[in-house]
Amino acid sequence: MVPLADGFPGKQTERGVVPHPIFGTYLLRDMLTVFDKTGQNLEDARKLADAAISRMRPRGDALIFWYGDDGLSQLDGTHYSGLTQARYLQPLISVAKATGEAKYFEAARRVFQSLKIPASEGGVHRLHKGDSVVEEYAGKVPTYVLNGWTTAILELFGYATSSGDQEAQQFALSNVRALKALLPLYDVPDLANSRYQLVGSTVHRFRSKSPIKALSGFVRVGEDIFPFEHGNSGNPRWTNQIRQSVPKQFRLNTLLSRAFTCKIVVRFKAESDCTLRWDVAPGRYQTQGTAIYPDGFTPVKEIAAKAGLNTIVLDPPWESLNLIGYPTNFRKVIAGKRYNVYHWLHVRNLERLFEITHDFEIEEWAHKWRGYARKWPELYPESDIAYSAPGAGISW
Hints:
alpha+beta; Glycosyltransferase; six-stranded mixed sheet
């Protein structure tokens, strides 16, 4: 953290020091912890809360701390994070109660309102079968990052309890219902692991003995359509692409989500009647990976095509795509050991949610995922991997 003129923390980037929205939540919580223990630091906490609020911008009744094109996020353009917004809720209420100033209660209420703006309108709120999902960040294709979502739910419950906001309580419970419906999709029993998110990309290869040329197409995710781009423009992890460099073969990069019914539609031209051989690159799990890295192809099926224009509609071969969304990894290095931090965060957050909701279905998932660590020594016999959770007092 690098302090700015008003005391708000920034991050050193190639573009200079940039205010980092979520850093403010970390520092404010630390200050409030000191205040709770010693009675000191309240003035510093108040000034930091003021600095954070002054950097937020109104949108209707909501108050939002925006991310920009400043290298702090993997998303392009101006956007905001449901996780960051949620993490301001309880600290603002704590400052309000300590100072007695109503403006902090009002700021917290308006931050809560930001979590209800639909993703279709640039917000972070989605619906799953009528219940709410707060996205950590709302890309075009829903990502449903589990760590960010469960943390936001916990913050909502804390805010509802400390503020008495019953709307927030019901909103948190709606998120829990959606979470329970989607939790099975995060489970990766073959790897004794959980998924970081439910979206991911992979490469498909189509070959023929006669010339073929891909023209256009799209990936349908739920009710939304995402067209293919030609060439290598954009980040292949977040872009549907058509790639063709040889006359008898083309490849597709597709962005798919486990949370929705997906279809792959491609229009191509064949020089003569032929058979397309469809292969997919499933990749293999790497303990330090973050996405599928193609290292070979697996056949899916053969597709008959006629001379001239053809349009094919394909279902993703999910049995070969176990790594979409990518399971949590062992990248975080602490004291020379690599930890699977996000898996343990999933376990910890589910355990905390059980303490709040007393929902045994949530406890069962927490218990199952905690037990997965017993299988790690056999599955991942790498000498620098830690098979336990990070210890108390260690920053995750």
